[in-house]
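// run 5 | inverse folding | seed 20
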């Protein structure tokens, strides 16, 4: 699916499909983290069952008000023990499938909110 934000001054998800995601028109076939502050880096995870606390520790350092977790092609919550670093600083996390996470990120970032999205970009299992 191709997404067309009205006009965004921050990086946006501009498309997604099975096994890929596009950020500002650049296509990626791996999981990644983006933020409305301009952060973008690889996230070494292809499925929620692979998640550990170490996956979420860097997210606590982003200085955002909310984290959106895209769990892949279907909604899957991360294990609670993985979220310790986020809970320590009181960072809220919303979990949804990756497509919904992309849309939600675009809306919140477009409103000027300081948000990040941790997006699992894997093939359907």
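// decoded
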């Amino acid at each position: 699916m191709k997404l067309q934000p009205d006009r965004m001054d921050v990086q946006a998800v501009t498309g997604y499909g099975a096994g890929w995601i596009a950020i500002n028109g650049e296509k990626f076939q791996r999981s990644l983290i983006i933020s409305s502050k301009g952060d973008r880096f690889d996230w070494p995870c292809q499925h929620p069952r692979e998640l550990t606390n170490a996956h979420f520790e860097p997210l606590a350092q982003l200085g955002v008000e909310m984290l959106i977790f895209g769990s892949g092609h279907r909604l899957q919550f991360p294990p609670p023990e993985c979220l310790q670093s986020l809970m320590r600083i009181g960072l809220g996390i919303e979990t949804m499938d990756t497509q919904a996470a992309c849309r939600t990120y675009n809306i919140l970032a477009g409103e000027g909110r300081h948000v990040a999205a941790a997006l699992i970009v894997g093939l359907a299992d």
